[in-house]
Input
Amino acid sequence: MEARSWPPRRQLCPPGITWLALASLLSCLFASSKARVFSRCELAKALNDFGLDGYRGYDLADWVCLAYYASGFNTDAVDHEADGSTNNGIFQISSRKWCKNLALSGPNICRLYCTDLLKNDLKDSVVCVMKIVQEPQGMAY
Output
């Protein structure tokens, strides 16, 4: 009886690619775990500390309402638009005009990367939204 020889097994992916894919997946999981979803009261206190109560005629309730309907108080919220632009962060600030997105190049009036708007520290988001409400349309912009 003859011994049967089997052809060598082919790997689906070279070992380096497998590790790279695994590392990418883990980094996505860790990055998404950094998101912060504020409670209404936590956000109201934070926005008050930034001096938004009464800024440009909008009271604290207006700012909290904006954040709730824009992102559900989620600092890591990103909405992708069909044209490649994104709406980013707790106030859903658009990359079309206000921040730098890697997919599109726009005016970047707030002088920051859109990913800066996804931080748990609200400073960049608040400074940018303060510029936005200075537009003639105000908060409706």
About this structure: Residues 15-32 form the longest helix (18 residues).
